[in-house]
Write a structure and sequence with these properties.
Mean pLDDT: 83
Low-confidence stretches: 32-37, 143-150, 508-513
Number of strands: 13
Strand order of the largest sheet: 4-3-13-12-11-5-10-9-6-8-7
CATH architecture of the largest domain: 3-Layer(aba) Sandwich
Strand content: 5-15%
Radius of gyration: 26 Å
Helix content: 25-40%
Amino acid sequence: MEVVLDNLTQAENIIEDILPLKEILERKLNLSRQLGQGKPIVLTWNKVMRICLIASLNLPDKRSIERLNEVQLNKSSQRIQPSFFTKDNKRSLFSALLKLRYKDCDVDWRDNRTVARIVAQEIYRGLDYLMEESNLNAFLYAETRGGRSTNSVPALELLIGEYADNVDATLDINSRNVTNAQIIIAGATGSGKTNLLAVLIQQFRNISTDSPYPVNFLLFDYKGEFSDPANNSWLALFDVDRSCILDPVKEPLPFSPFKDFSGRPLNEINLYSTEMANALCAIDRGSLSANMSNRLSEAIVGAYKKTNGKPITFELMLKGYQSRMVNADKDDSISSILKQLVRNKLFADSDKVNLTDECFIVKMDSFPKDGPIAKAIVYFIISKLNNIYEQLPKQVVSEDYVQIRHFTIIDEAHYMLDFDNRPLRNLIAVGRNKGLSIILATQNMDQFKSKHFDFYANAQYPLIMKQQSIADGVIKDLFGMSGRDFQEIKSEITALQKGELIIKDTTLAALGISGKTYKKIKVTYLI
């Protein structure tokens, strides 16, 4: 009988307990990099726990289950992801070793909670063993033989909480029958949006980071909660550390927001200049005259001529624009916003990182949320992701799942939805072909539908939390109901408590059965 290694709950406080070993391992692994400029290696929590488990299962000590019930499992049911055991095709080996070590004990290997406690007990045994320097060195520097790696795309079944009947509530993000991976969240202040975002990030990171196809993310942290040093423990949940935090107040964001047109025809630059003019006006809510548009287009084309098609800078744009103004001492809408962008030095002149290959949190709380600088940061980063999208190969597709490379996460997204945000629309429309996706969170559900774009129609999972006001039209469009059913779901949304949400459910409709078109979920409490 093989050991049940699915749906195992983590031990309570295990992340905090293995932190000292994680730090020791990273210091050892990064020793050769300390004199260089290379990005240090950061181990995932899954990897450190697996190291502890492997080290423990190598120890022939006699096992006992007498004190097994003293092992405390995580109160919010944080799971050990299946990849923990399946990486490098080791599931059967872990099963066999666990049964070997506990061969003299009466163990029901089909009971999830018993197996979860045994696994936790073994991880802690390995932790105690490896915290001794001599043991750690012997373990690290022993001769090893590499195993055959699996290249399967991980199933992103995000466990976000429970339905009312205590059944696990999961979001299927990347199976082949899912239309797209977009998630939108509507919830008033205090509804639990921040915790829900954390649960979503923790889930797709926990599932994927030890697979050949990790899911990275870029989070715009408008309130500064995720980048606050007081909340460093949150970062550990996402398998990142403070090196992922970008603060444009302290130093420019480490990439250029502009396209590289090296070797490309001039008409592409002309089209790009028109889009840029419209963007700058939308960001600052300015009015764009024909003369201003022509001047800016000429300035952008001229700047690219000076760089031979390489990415330009806001300084070059501003100089070219001012040289074409009748009175350069008197600002118009374009020169005003360009001066703000130059003065704040938001971006580097060249790319020092790849936005989709790593995880980043952009600290946004130093800027007014509805001001031009905050809008420019988000707009141009999304535009940069579109540029990266064009260069990416198509995502990997397995028999059952498609690869998701990256999530762009915008909290307080309403500030980016009230104008024709073409880069955001483009990323949503075509991103899935390359494995790029979006999570948008805002306060009111009606902010996701405007004359520019219908985000509800393009989202696989609209998640509705407690609302300050309820838009009747959105409910009717989203859930396809009227009359008594409409009043019922409206009452359900009104009665939602912090940490609860309503999700669309088409199960019954797909079977041709009448019934509720929604379900309520109590979200896992994480932060």
